[in-house]
Protein: Polysaccharide lyase family 7 protein
Amino acid sequence: MFTKNPILFMVILTSLASSIAVANTAAANKNQQLNPKAPPGLNFDLADWNISLPVDTNKDGKVDTIPGELFKKGFEYKPYFYTADDGGMVFTAFVDGVKTSKNTKYTRTELREMLRRDDYSIKTQGVTKNNWVFSSVRGKTQREAGGVDGRLEATVAVNNVTVTGDSKQIGRVIIGQIHAKDDEPARLYYRKLPYNSKGVVYLAHEPREGDEQYYEFNGSRASNAKEPEDGIALNEKFSYVIDVKGDTLTVTLIREGKEDITHIVDIKDSGYHKRDQYMYFKAGVYNQNNSGDPKDYVQATFYRLENTHKGYDR
Structure:
């Protein structure tokens, strides 16, 4: 448990002390100006999220996972999770770090949606009130879940990507996901190669059986891609929407002064309409490079994060 973690406990005490001056900061919404002096949990409504950090400060062999109720008490932990000088919410993951499981290849500093909030009587895994399901599943399963269908909206700037390591891994970071029981119906990537000045966004859809499907928004995801004509530079803000209604996955890239780019994916044959399949959003940085220099890293700053579901009442 986090309360048995002395180092992070001291971090909380420090964060609380530094946040007294901003204790009256309300939970953020899409219209609120971000306060650079406030910890992330006082700028953003993170009550139904927890966060995994790529560290193991209490030496229990697992990543440190911070529950949602500590966000509003001022939790932050540099250099992995903190408030930027402009008020944004910063996520950082180095190539070297603790991973979430034996089956995970890469490090992450990533929020995990927790619809149960601080009700620990509800199980984390399974079709419970902690997770949501697609409306393509049977009605009973919908009633057992915390919500039906889902929409994740974010505004983000990717600040850094890896520049060392295997050419197939350099420059990749996942900035948003839908995670299912074992698979990932949606993974949204940003990738910038070292010799290019701008990067691209692309989507991966993983059916439960069969090959993954990739959808490019503004340029090639290839490891030898040329400079994208419509690319996104580091530190350039953009927005995305990941939306599921039944058997339809819709993902949109939004940029100021440019037309939106949308991919609509038919997922009726992807296997997620089964009764045991449950969903949760993830957001932050999931480093997709484990071959680079240990100190090489990915970093992104979020300026908006909003999750909604049918039947989920906060």
In short: The domain at 83-310 is CATH 2.60.120.200 (Jelly Rolls). DSSP finds three helices and 16 strands in the chain. The first strand starts at residue 49 and ends at 53.
